[in-house]
Design a protein that fits this description.
Elements: H1 5-20, H2 24-67, H3 69-96, H4 98-129, H5 131-147, H6 154-173, H7 184-191, H8 208-238, H9 240-251, H10 256-295, H11 300-310, H12 316-332, H13 337-362, H14 370-384, H15 386-405, H16 410-416, H17 424-433, H18 437-473, H19 479-497, H20 501-504, E1 517-521, H21 525-540, E2 545-548, H22 554-564, E3 568-574, H23 579-592, E4 598-603, H24 609-619, E5 623-625, H25 628-637
Parallel strand pairs: 1-2, 1-3, 3-4, 4-5
Amino acid sequence: MKPSSQSSANTSSIPSRAGRGTGADSVAPLRESAAGRGAEGAWGAAAGFRSVQVLLGIVLTVTILYFGSSILVPFALAVLFAMLLHPIVHRLERWIGRIASVVTVVAALMLSALGVGWVVSLQLVDLANRIPEYQKQLVVKLERLRGSDSSSGTMHKFQQAMDHLMNAIEAGTKPSSEPPKDEPFFKEILDGRREPQKVQVVPEPTSRWAAIAIALTSLANPLATFGIVTVLVIFLLIQREDVRDRVVRLMGTGKLTLTTNTLGEMGSRISRYLLMNALVNGGFGLAVTLGLLAIGIEYALMWGFLAFVLRFLPYIGPIAATVLPVAMAAVQFESWMPLIYTGGLFLVLELFTNNVVEPLAYGHSAGVSIIAILVTATFWTWVWGPVGLVLSVPMTVMLAVLGKHVPQLQSLGIALGDEPPLETYVIYYQRLLAGDQEEAESLLEEHEAQRGLVGVYDSIVVPALALAERDRVGGQLSARQIDFIWKSTEDLVDELAVPDPMVRGDAAVEPALEIRMLGCAVQDRADALALRMLSNSLQATGGTLDTMSDSMLAAELLEHVERDRPDILFLSALGGGGAVQLRYLLKRIRQRERNLNVVVCRWGYPGGKERMANRMREWGASRVVTTLAEAMQIARSTPRMERVPVAAN
């Protein structure tokens, strides 16, 4: 029916008003557009302001750490030693009380350090006095090495090349031997008619008290730092509950649980790491001392103590601890064999300590990644020098724990922690997005040995396909990426299902499933791929699943059901989609097959599973599963020709 003339007139008048822009309807969109632009601009300004705030906060923090090192370093060292000694003090105070235990432990540590330091200093002084002797021995050894080489040898050629180079440099830079014409004084000296005047610089004698004053001045700062650290350690150990309560109060009683958990995990991680590190390094130093004594290296106690101390420096400490004893072996003996023995001793000890002792002692006590330790060690060394290198691991542990418990600092926990940054199925999906099928295959094979075929399907492949289906529906994947993901996963799924006699030859063979099973993909290729994984899993246990294409009509499905009379019908739907198709299929099936055992498979369903399962049963499903393991269990427990009645609505 055509509209009336009045209606036409009214209709034609609407665009004319809108075109003029005088009506209220034309003003409202402009206002909404302006409001939208204003909100977007305000959001952008707020985001930019937050970025500036974060940047200024980082700059201010680094500035305070750098210029406040004279105050912060003693405090950090005191906290470090307090955490190291706390387990010992806590055990000892049950017997003699807190104050006595703190004083005893600190005094024992200081006396031990002074005793070892005194012995090491004596050996160091003796080594300094014998340096000329070792220098002569080294020169003799090098002369022998040089003499053992023929005139046509490598060292001889190298020496000749260096001599020619030095002669050329001297010839180009040698000053003229002729005296200046206007300087008769130099001419008389060169002719031998005038003796040059000798000038001798005699330093002023230094009194004993002046020497003592100079020594005390040079030791003033280290002694002051040592005293401050000692006093802070004592008071931190005695007043540890008071310090803890004040930190909790500063954070606020509303965050009591968060603060308690953070402080507890931080203290336990750092204390265990420091204690285990001290024990491991002490054992390493003792082994070095005994090994060097067996080889015959002089000053073995000093080298062992240096190895113990230097191993507290991450990565560069063990290298420095190795160089000095090896150099000592080179200058002490005429033969080169002690040098080889010394290098071999450190190599064996490092390999044994790094691969056997440290994994058993540390475990996951530190909880930080190796890359994070390397980066933070560089930062703390730049800020606080060598002391920062020693403190780098405890400081990194503290930041990682804060990032784990404080939501605002979550990025620190991700960047510094040793936990995997991504779930395994996310890594698999990311590799497929990058087009790296080889690494995706390696990932599946690695986890198949641990979880089995069904476990890999359920924990990696199905969740990854659910992510891919979500991104496909959201329009985030190109057609090429979609095709590559489906095709690669199909190949990998089939390849994993091929039995490997080297791995699975001794596995127990399960009884074959004699029931008839039929599977139907509800919606698309993703549903068919999930059904393919179920077929492979059933085939590995001796079962057979007849699958139907996702393009098959409901009438064709019903014809197959009536003809084959399956014991189980699996309806496959991946992710959260396919609800409309499932409802339609269940309705059609129940109209003709009231007692058919219909299992709805909602692989990787993201929402509430119980609510979804109840809705599926209301529509006519006999059972509902979300994993391949559940579907396999139903297949094993279903007898032949069983008919499960439909649940009453």
